[in-house]
């Protein structure tokens, strides 16, 4: 597809709205992670793949000469995704803050340099009519974006359809950003299929996450009501075990296993002490026996036979 020519005003307006949403979309998630100091249910692979997808998407948007707001989108998207990824390293994997920050910053700089290199490399051939390299870049971006939305479904499956760790304000803003950006592409003189596919994939996968949690709320409305009436946390209700990960039974089994291990160690220590005491006792007996022999010998040597 040839680069875009004059961009209609409607495309710029819609693209600007989409960019505003996508520039702030992960801010609620970052704040949510920081406030709770944990990221259970939010896959680190999701955030890293999203940050990675921003590189080919940024190259594709710049070389295709999309409206400026959409060209800015991947940059903001990458920055926020790497920030959330660093939080996962800190809160879930117990990384030091500075270590995670330096790693995320280094990867961000690497991604920026790679994007510039690809733009400079592909812009010339594309202007001469060689389209397959930029098409490949667009396909790669769509694949990475879609792949980033797969890990949350594994987390959802672990909890029987319940969504945990993903902030729904973030998800709503992200969905709206994708929607307005898609409309911006529609309003352009020619619709870019690959660019549109990325937004459509995002819309469909995130709609699936919304639907899964909505079904969970419908299925558990009576259980949540009983938990509220009894002033019991939902996760502590016996019927809610399948919606909790790790399962309470698994946690108890691990705890019992740890206790058993401690008891075995204590028994081993006691046994070692008994063995040491036994050895010390044997040494004392041997020492006393040797001492008696030595005393007996000295007495025998010290006695002179009587002369009648």
Describe what you observe in this structure.
The chain is mainly alpha-helical. It is built from eleven helices and no strands. The protein has helices spanning 9-24, 27-36, 44-63, 68-91, 97-127, 132-148, 151-158, 168-187, 193-219, 221-229, 248-302. The model is unreliable at 251-255 and 293-308 (pLDDT under 50).
What is the structure about, briefly put?
Helix content is 77%, strand content 0%. The chain is an all-alpha fold and 308 residues long.
Helix-strand blueprint:
Blueprint: H1 9-24, H2 27-36, H3 44-63, H4 68-91, H5 97-127, H6 132-148, H7 151-158, H8 168-187, H9 193-219, H10 221-229, H11 248-302
């Amino acid at each position: 597809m040839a680069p875009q020519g004059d961009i209609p005003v409607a495309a710029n307006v819609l693209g600007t709205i989409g960019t505003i949403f996508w520039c702030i979309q992960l801010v609620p998630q970052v704040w949510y992670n920081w406030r709770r100091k944990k990221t259970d249910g939010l896959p680190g692979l999701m955030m890293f793949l999203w940050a990675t997808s921003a590189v080919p998407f940024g190259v594709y948007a710049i070389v295709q000469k999309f409206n400026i707001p959409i060209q800015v989108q991947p940059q903001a998207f990458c920055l926020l995704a790497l920030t959330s990824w660093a939080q996962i390293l800190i809160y879930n994997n117990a990384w030091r803050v500075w270590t995670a920050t330096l790693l995320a910053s280094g990867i961000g700089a690497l991604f920026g340099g790679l994007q510039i290199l690809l733009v400079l490399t592909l812009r010339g051939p594309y202007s001469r009519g060689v389209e397959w390299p930029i098409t490949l870049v667009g396909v790669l971006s769509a694949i990475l974006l879609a792949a980033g939305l797969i890990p949350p479904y594994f987390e959802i499956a672990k909890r029987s359809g319940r969504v945990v760790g993903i902030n729904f304000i973030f998800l709503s803003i992200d969905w709206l950003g994708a929607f307005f950006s898609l409309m911006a592409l529609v309003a352009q003189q020619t619709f870019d299929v690959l660019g549109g596919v990325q937004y459509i994939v995002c819309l469909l996968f995130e709609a699936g996450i919304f639907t899964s949690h909505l079904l969970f709320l419908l299925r558990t409305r009576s259980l949540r009501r009983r938990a509220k009436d009894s002033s019991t946390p939902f996760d502590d209700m016996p019927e809610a075990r399948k919606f909790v990960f790790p399962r309470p039974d698994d946690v108890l089994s691990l705890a019992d296993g740890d206790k058993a291990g401690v008891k075995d160690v204590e028994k081993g220590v006691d046994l070692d002490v008994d063995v040491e005491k036994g050895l010390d006792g044997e040494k004392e007996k041997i020492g006393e026996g040797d001492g008696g022999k030595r005393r007996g010998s000295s007495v025998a040597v010290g006695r002179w036979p009587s002369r009648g």
